[in-house]
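User: I'm putting together notes for a lab meeting next week and I want to include a structural view of one of the chains we've been expressing. I don't have a solved structure, so I'd like a prediction I can at least talk through. The sequence is below, exactly as it appears in our construct file.
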Amino acid sequence: MTSPPRLILASRSPRRAELLRRLGLDFEVVPATIDETYIDHEMPADHAERLAREKASTIAARYPDALVVGSDTIVILDSDVLGKPRDPAEAVVMLQRLAGRTHEVYTGVAVASPAGIASGLERVTVHFRWLDREECEAYVATGEPLDKAGAYGIQGFGSALVRSIEGDYFAVMGLPVVRLLALLNRTGWRYAYGEGLKPVARVP
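Assistant: Thanks for the context. Below is the predicted structure for the 204-residue chain, given as structure tokens.
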């Protein structure tokens, strides 16, 4: 049987790595450094998917025989992009804006392979419960939100902020698992529970 190619995660995000480990996949982490500046008139969804593709293709250029996974997550509120906060004070401001309101999370994901690159996007609606400033400051004091888009992590202490979501929970974490597996399938590799990746059976 054909052995699966090398699997590389083009991200330093510990959340994305955790999700791949949960699937039992063997992979390496090789972070991609790219220019994340918006292109003029670029829509947020297009931006997230484009950056995912660029991350994957950048690392694939170095490892052309590998499967390379790239992903990018952005948070949108009132048409504003909430990126990673520059400091604790900005994190508190972001959380106060999100408190009691609904926002959107866009996560683009891409898989680069020797056959080319495939990508997709997940859009998730997230509803925050009401928070006062003291609670926002207490959460920021944990340090958790400082490296996360929108200044919160749904999988950690930040789970206490979220009233409900509509869509893929894992996309909010930073890696939409079901869409990723579909993209891997398109490149010729299916997910085999407990056995990693196996070749997709092709009809003669």
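A couple of points you could mention at the meeting. DSSP finds six helices and nine strands in the chain. Residues 7-194 form a domain with the Maf protein fold (CATH 3.90.950.10).

User: Perfect, that's what I needed.
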